[in-house]
Amino acid sequence: MDAAQDSIFALASGHGRAGVSVVRLSGPRVMAALASLTRKSPPPPRLASVRRLYDPQSGALLDEALVLVFAAPASFTGEDVVELHLHGGRAVVASVLEGLSKIKGLRGAEPGEFTRRAFEQGRMDLTEAEAINDLVMAQTAAQQQQALRQMGGALGRIYEDWRQRLMHAYARIEADIDFPDEDLPEDIVDTLRPDMMRLLDEISTHLGDDHRGERLREGVSIVLLGAPNVGKSSLLNALSKKDAAIVSDIAGTTRDVIEVQMNLLGYPASLIDTAGIREAGDSIESEGVRRALDKAHQADIRVLLLDAAAHIIGDGDDPGDHAPVFDLSHLPADLVRLRDDADIILLNKADQLTHPPYGRQPGEERLFVISVTADRGIADLLEALSHRVMELCDVREAPALTRIRHRQALEDAQACLQRYMQADAEHRDPVLAAEDIRMAARAVGRITGQVDVESMLDIVFSSFCIGK
């Protein structure tokens, strides 16, 4: 049997013990399968019905379940769909899945196969299909809202509008090339330039979002950097409120990358502890330092930890008359090469000073004096990190790019349109112009899965009445 014609089933709710578990079936044989399980005719579509479920071979009672039927095409997949709302014990779920596997024409679904069938049946485009996974994986309110916007088709509508405009332009150029004897408007190619310029500007603006949508989907990376034994692991544990990293007075305890997920003001972040940066004493520590530097180069936010005693001059002996003096001139060489004005600088272990100036420093937007062990200055730091994460994720244009796949396709389309616009109007080859527009449309169509050559022919004949 063709795999596309198979009827499939799978557990649609989470694994493990629960009050209710949902098993979903989709395909041409699901009504017969339901009759085999219940020994009754299927209930009317969209009307919940309580049915006993029996093993199709042994006849043993498996469960008493709530059954829902969704007739094609008005279902999630566009096929006939059945949902079995079971009691959520592991034994119940396992026995029902085993019973379904005994029915001819049914098989277990492949990962993502229900959503794939929905796409193939035209129930959604690829951006909406991707958004379903994003919604399932969402851990913060901001991720949830972005996924809901995309699942509602907001992103797909933008891309489909761009694709349609490109296809209309392509059709007009092709008509000019293929039907020179027809009574067509003059200078078709040149009349397209204003709209193609506007479209290029729209795509360029969409691409110039500083990766906000992608950061929101994947999480902002915050990397803690510094020499050994400056308190990076202690800070990771304090900010995440978990004992995620081993803390020791022995320098070089952290040898590998340790990552903790956080929710900051509803936005996702990955807090990353790294090995202390110094001249490595062995091959294992050397690899840890290499990984730390690699994470530093990839980070969205870098937090540099330093020893307060080594960088605050005067120890604040006379705090009423003199502001503390900060000397950041003697950083480790690797940190000097990495550092830029966006980095957050933390002067830790300030509890060892006489009059420590805790918190964010006046006039120094990204300089903080803290003590992790004394829990001083941490609140100010957490607030600053939270607002920084929010700034990096805040989607100014809704909906925003959410995947590298989308970005690469739009960059391809942008390059094609730029090539089209840069061609000399007086010497432009219409065949090359058509190819640029066609490739741009194809690139945009890759995002939503709409790559339909036949639609171009429909546009040609409907727009120009070719052949009368």
Q: Would you write up a description of this structure?
A:
The chain is of the alpha/beta class. The chain folds into 3 domains: 3-120, Probable tRNA modification gtpase trme, domain 1 (Gyrase A, domain 2, 2-Layer Sandwich), CATH 3.30.1360.120; 154-209 and 401-464, Four Helix Bundle (Hemerythrin (Met), subunit A) (Up-down Bundle), CATH 1.20.120.430; 217-393, P-loop containing nucleotide triphosphate hydrolases (Rossmann fold), CATH 3.40.50. 43% of the residues lie in helices and 18% in strands. The protein is built from 17 helices and 15 strands. It has helices at residues 30-38, 90-101, 113-120, 126-137, 141-151, 154-178, 188-191, 193-207, 212-218, 232-240, 283-298, 308-311, 333-338, 378-393, 404-422, 430-448, 454-464, and strands at residues 7-11, 20-26, 49-54, 61-70, 81-87, 106-108, 220-226, 258-264, 267-273, 301-307, 312-313, 325-326, 344-348, 359-361, 364-369. The strands form 3 sheets. Strands 8-9-7-10-13-15-14 form a 7-stranded mixed beta sheet, sandwiched between helices. A hairpin with an 8-residue loop joins strand 1 (7-11) and strand 2 (20-26). Helix 4 packs antiparallel against helix 5 (141-151) and helix 8 runs antiparallel to helix 15. The protein is flat and about 85 Å long. It starts with 6 loop residues before the first strand and ends with a helix. 37% of the residues are buried.
